[in-house]
Amino acid sequence: MEQTPIHPLADGAQGTLFRFATAGSVDDGKSTLVGRLLHDSKAILADQLDTVTRTSIERGFGGASGGIDFALLTDGLRAEREQGITIDVAYRYFATDRRSFILADCPGHVQYTRNMVTGATTADAVIMLIDGRKGVLEQTRRHLSVVKLLRVPHIVIAVNKIDLLDYDEAAFSSVAAAVRAVTDELALGAVHVIPVSALAGDNVVGRSANTPWYTGPSLLELLETLPGADEVDRAVEDFRLPVQLVVRPQGAVAVATDAAHAFRDYRAYAGQVASGSVRVGDAVTVTPGGASTVVTGIDFAGQDLDQAIAPQSVSLRLRDELDIARGAVIGAAGTLPAPVRDLTADLFWLDPQPLNPGARVLVKFGTSTVQALLSTVTGRLNLDTLSLETASSLDVNDIGQVTVHLAAALPVETYAENRRSGAFLVIHPQDGATLAAGIVTVAGVPA
Question: Where would you find the membrane-spanning parts of this chain (predicted)?
Answer without folding.
Answer: none
